[in-house]
Specification:
The protein folds into two domains: 139 residues, 3-Layer(aba) Sandwich (Cytidine Deaminase, domain 2), CATH 3.40.140.10; 202 residues, Dihydrofolate Reductase, subunit A, CATH 3.40.430. It is 23% helix and 22% strand. The protein has eleven helices and 17 strands. Strands 6, 7, 8, 9, 11, 13, 14, 15, 16 and 17 form a ten-stranded mixed sheet that branches. A five-stranded mixed sheet has the order 2-1-3-4-5, sandwiched between helices. Strands 10-12 form a two-stranded parallel sheet. α4 links the parallel β3 and β4. α4 packs parallel to α5. The structure holds ligand AOF and zinc ion (ZN). Zinc ion binds next to loops.
Amino acid sequence: MASSLVSRPHLSARPVRAASLASPSRACVAAGVRCQAQAAGDLDRHYMRRCVELARKAAGHTSPNPMVGCVIVRDGRVVGEGFHPKAGQPHAEVFALRDAGDLAENATAYVSLEPCNHYGRTPPCTEALINAKVKEVVMGMTDPNPIVASKGIEKLQGAGIDVRVGVEEALCRKLNEAYIHRMLSGKAFATLRATLSMNGIVTNQLGKGADLSGGYYSQLMKEYDGVIISSDLAKMSTLPVSHEAGANQPQYIIIAQGESSRLHIPSLSEEHASKAIVLADSPITVEPAGVEVAVLRQIDLDSILQLLAQRGLCSVLVDFREAGESFASLLNDFQEEKLVQKVVVEVLPVWLASEGLNNLAFGGSQSFPLKNVEHREVNGSVLLEGYV
Ligand code: AOF
Ligand code: ZN
């Protein structure tokens, strides 16, 4: 079982304590349910961070479900751990309760997301927690899924279980930013990625080691459910892949706007043809056979993101390489229409010759500041990440 393989933190045996009293979590109040005032101590936060760490083990495998981790603690000792490995498989709480066995009785269950209270592909986690006789459930955030939202909390409280919500809430929200976005908007969470030279030229190159194991690009390919690329990139070079261990390769969404009647994707084998979908604005034959082709009157990002969400993709990377004008026009007004949530820009330590205005800019006519911008240096390049 996935959960039995994970290591446990070695902590001194002391009970979970309620340290500083903060105001009740926003989620708790908004949900209109009565939870205990939030009392998150250092240990609470420690166990919740462990839940998030466990949840991340399934990055790239859980969509359309969220990533969820769960830790069961009794008398200050971790007695069970688990995470949700994949949609269709049991939820995090089930793995953690199995791992804890009888020791779950009177224990505190930490879970990064509100336990579900519905019969989906799997039975409700609330019932599993109630049957295991846990004393308390501490959760990172409520589940935005309308069929769950706060019903899990109500059910647990109705069974006499103490509930606290909002421990490490920001971290839990970031973990599932794509799942939350898809749940609330009906569209896939989109991140725009581009590489620039130091003189501001958009380039197809990636930074040194970026697409090798451990490189940021290889990690993005593991984490994102899909990648939108231009037909020019698909024709010219190998399709983007992740070299991370156990990675689930992304779906390829290939924009073939204004493309001739034949598109050959040399690096895609027939065996992997189902990994790609070509969106074209006129009838087109695609090789290898077996690639899905959708001919649309107009190719716009809004419809693409809705289509991807309907197909169960939570996140997609818009990879701005070999991006001709039609690809660039996809991104017109992305900020105004809230189509792109995040931007990742890599700046290479090179100066590049300009071939004209085409490769100087992307993203249309908008001006706006980015939020929560972070940067780091990777192999001599600078990676900038910010939210729209
Ligand atoms: C939890 N723990 O580990 C996960 C939850 O079709 P199902 O049965 O897998 O249900 C999917 C929904 O359950 C998903 O949309 C989300 O609301 C919740 N996911 N809940 O208590 C978990 N993955
Ligand atoms: Zn569940």
